[in-house]
């Protein structure tokens, strides 16, 4: 697992948990300050894409889970 910490100055505003595989990565879970003015979930995915580019991962899988009903 890779933990991406996103800061605004000294304030931790988001953490994105990424499962790292041989040729890919999976955006496992992201949590963030809901009152923050920017879309931190989108920003986290962009950072994960950059991680994949830097480490030559072919794919980034985005996990989708319903919070209303169990899958």
TrEMBL record:
Enzyme type, top EC level: transferase
Domain spans labelled N-end rule aminoacyl transferase C-terminal: 4-63
EC number: 2.3.2.8
Any GO MF annotation of the entry: arginyl-tRNA--protein transferase activity
Assigned keywords, A-Z: Acyltransferase, Transferase
Domain of life: Bacteria
Protein's recorded name: Arginine-tRNA-protein transferase
């Amino acid at each position: 697992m890779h933990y991406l910490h996103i800061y605004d100055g000294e304030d931790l505003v988001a953490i994105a948990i990424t499962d790292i595989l041989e040729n890919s990565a999976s955006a496992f879970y992201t949590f963030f300050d809901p009152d923050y003015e920017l879309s931190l979930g989108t920003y986290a995915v962009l950072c994960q894409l950059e991680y994949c580019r830097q480490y030559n991962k072919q794919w980034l899988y985005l996990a989708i889970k319903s919070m209303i009903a169990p899958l």
